[in-house]
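Input (structure):
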């Protein structure tokens, strides 16, 4: 049985894409594993000590392709009242207030990423009950966020198969 002409012409393209995707393409080859940040933000204080859930600051996880970095206004929601308990915290909060007074976004450096040819959204993962720590590690216990998972195709496919999630190419490549 012959494949329709349209499908036959797509076959070489799909084979090239599949071959390219099978390599060990690191998701963050251009990003350091634990980059220095413009402000010493400590998840240990915010998440572990104060119990602020991930989605409070990364509120776009349910509505956007990316979790996103919170705008300065989100930080200032608390820090216009919370000045810090140590000199280091007070200094960081003063830096934060400088960004807020200039209406300037904090130039955070990306820690987690996937290649541009991967379409990833947090929404189905959240609906499936996948905890943030499954991919991002125990961020609540990190003084500085460090990438703990490779976020490679093989790593993601393995997780999908363990959880019974779709693992066909079109799940992430569309």
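Output (sequence):
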């Amino acid at each position: 049985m012959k494949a329709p002409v349209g499908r036959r012409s797509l076959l070489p393209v799909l084979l090239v894409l599949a071959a390219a995707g099978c390599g060990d393409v690191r998701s963050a080859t251009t990003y350091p594993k634990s980059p220095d940040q413009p402000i010493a933000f400590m998840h240990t204080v915010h998440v572990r000590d104060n119990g602020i859930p991930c989605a409070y600051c990364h509120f776009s996880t349910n509505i956007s392709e990316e979790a996103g970095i919170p705008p300065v206004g989100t930080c200032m929601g608390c820090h216009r009242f919370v000045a810090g308990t140590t000199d280091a915290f007070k200094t960081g909060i003063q830096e934060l207030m400088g960004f807020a007074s200039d209406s300037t976004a904090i130039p955070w450096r990306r820690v987690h990423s996937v290649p541009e040819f991967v379409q990833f959204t947090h929404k189905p993962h959240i609906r499936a009950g996948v905890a943030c720590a499954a991919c991002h590690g125990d961020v609540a216990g990190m003084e500085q966020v460090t990438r703990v998972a490779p976020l490679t195709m093989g790593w993601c496919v393995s997780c999908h198969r363990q959880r019974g999630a779709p693992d066909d190419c079109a799940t992430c490549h569309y």
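Notes: Residues 39 and 92 are 6 Å apart (CA to CA). The chain has eight helices and no strands.
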